[in-house]
Every structure is written in structure tokens, then in C-alpha cells.
Recover the amino acids of this structure.
């Protein structure tokens, strides 16, 4: 697994690009079925891409909302880049078939 690095451009400021990963997972979601992924050992960052709206929750079952959730226990819609401090599992659910890729970095 490669480290996640933000490179600097010619002006010595961070550039708005991310590196390729050598550790990528592909997921195929069945509609309305929670899928659990265990975070690989040593992973500190996940870059996630989707082809359909997908709800995500860490360390607990993800759900597609059908009512208001105001207690902090809701799922996140289509998160992209996340640090993984304290995260052991990532849960995914979509109301429709979905394809997901996760690029992992240490």
C-alpha cells in the first residue's frame, strides 16, 4: 500500500490531485443490502468512487434514510476522501445496483 501524499507545484503550494494507489477494491452492491468492508491493515486514507448514490457508515450498518435522523447516527451520502482514524469497517448501501471503487493509502 502506497502512502497518501499531497505534492507541491512549481509555486510550492499543494496541488489539487491525488496519487494512484496500488491497493484498490471493487464492490458490486445489490439494492438495499448492506455490504461491510474491513479496512486493510495499515490503511489511513480511503478514496471512494461510485456510479450510483450510496449511503456509507463507519463501524456500523449503513441505511438508506426513510425519515429524519437527527441523533448523529445517520449514514453519509457518497463520501469521497476520508481519513480512517479509528475506522475498522466501512458499510455501504444503495437503493439501486451500484459499483464502487476504494483506493487505499497508508
Amino acid at each position: 500500500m502506497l502512502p497518501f501524499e499531497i505534492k507541491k507545484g512549481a509555486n510550492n503550494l499543494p496541488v489539487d490531485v491525488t496519487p494512484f494507489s496500488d491497493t484498490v477494491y471493487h464492490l458490486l452492491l445489490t439494492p438495499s443490502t448492506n455490504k461491510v468492508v474491513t479496512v486493510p491493515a495499515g490503511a489511513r486514507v480511503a478514496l471512494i468512487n461510485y456510479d450510483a448514490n450510496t449511503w456509507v457508515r463507519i463501524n456500523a450498518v449503513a441505511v438508506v434514510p426513510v425519515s429524519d435522523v437527527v441523533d448523529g447516527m445517520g449514514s453519509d451520502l457518497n463520501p469521497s476522501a476520508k481519513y480512517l482514524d479509528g475506522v475498522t469497517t466501512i458499510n455501504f448501501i444503495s437503493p439501486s445496483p451500484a459499483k464502487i471503487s476504494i483506493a487505499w493509502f497508508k
Observations:
- The mean pLDDT is 95.
